Give the backbone structure.
Amino acid sequence: MVQQSQEAKLLKIGEVSLGSGLPVKTIRYYDEIGLLVPTVVRSPAGYRLFHPQILNRLAFIRRAQSLGLHLNEVQQILTVHDQGQRPCGEVRHHLESKLTEVHQQIEALETLKIELQGILSGWQDQPSSDRFEQTICPNLQKGGVGSGE
């Protein structure tokens, strides 16, 4: 059996795109911001060539983003991984922070929901014409100019 050369095992960006389901442009961007550092090399002609592990790395990036992690957070996790350590503690830390953020967003949305329900419950289809002198929409601007409401 003939052993393939190291370069023959490397993937071209189009192959990575097909294998990962990501657009070529996204893969280039990830490379430019340093997310793909240990899995990409340049050919003598300057083309990007990728180690097969790139597909696992891109799958991880996609999953982390689907859970709401930002690319800078993904970079921190990958840095731990690239140093030969298991990044699970780092992943957990970021997911716990994301969960706290989601709880805060839910609370803010609940407050907004109550406010919207209050506005709509007191809605007047024909507010008095004198209210239009001080507001654009009296239903929305209950207090008029300068009231902050």
Notes: Residues 92-142 form one domain.
